[in-house]
């Protein structure tokens, strides 16, 4: 005969085993029942509506300029720490990287995107270009970001599928609706469904949550998107998304400091979120970077030019190098004030 205590003990063990099975499944591999209800090929649908030429590793952007090794070291470290910080109460989730033409914003964004991709922390990125084909349409941005989020963070696919199923015409709706239904809502639903799972894991099983989210979202060259109104709209949409998102995504928007973008920061939404900005034109490492860059380029000329072996050594002399670095810095200073 089982005593009451034994029955209670066995019931507890049985429930614990069930619970362990329920909550110990990795978020990335678990098959969500929603997928069966809405068997849409989310990636294929988003892929068909994305502007793929603007992706970090798009074939159209093959060998895109990036930072020379040993340049921008300080700022890359600063941005990497900002992206990777575990703190939920960071001073900001939005960073505006601005600076004059040619100062190296896109090169820096490319470099940071590649570093984060290697570390599994690249969520999505888009590189606008006013001249390259298929890279200036602001209306394609949100879908292209959602496509990458779905690719890099599979658990949100089922929630995007659900919204696509309810709104098949979503791709011709406004950017605001697209941001809500393809990015904010799927992420928030996922957070809501995984809340209890994480709660049990951490509270009762003393396991750390396994939900690994890639963090970094880059929008480079916002000023190169084809319409100033859409540029401002995108900036505000990102701010609104940040104010609602429960995940610690980090958004970087890089652009020249155009007047209409500056005035968009006066919108009241920026009182609700914390954001920061960096003027790349004022990066303190510039002099050192210019010196390293010139040294490398002159070394290559000596090695590769047919008359390189006839050059005097050293070439240029230290005094000539100082003058070159000073002149280039002055040029940058003039650009900064333009
Ligand atoms: N750290 C760096 N190392 C090597 N080359 C660089 C670096 N920064 C910039 N460059 C070079 O300078 C050129 C201009 O840089 P980039 O396109 O990144 O400027 P930008 O600030 O994005 O300009 P724009 O406002 O026109 O978009 C590029 O061709 C790139 O190769
Ligand atoms: Mg650029």
TrEMBL record:
<keyword id="KW-0677">Repeat</keyword>
<protein>
    <recommendedName>
        <fullName>Nephrocystin 3-like N-terminal domain-containing protein</fullName>
    </recommendedName>
</protein>
<dbReference type="Pfam" id="PF24883">
    <property type="entry name" value="NPHP3_N"/>
</dbReference>
<feature type="domain" description="Nephrocystin 3-like N-terminal">
    <location>
        <begin position="78"/>
        <end position="256"/>
    </location>
</feature>
<dbReference type="InterPro" id="IPR056884">
    <property type="entry name" value="NPHP3-like_N"/>
</dbReference>
<dbReference type="InterPro" id="IPR027417">
    <property type="entry name" value="P-loop_NTPase"/>
</dbReference>
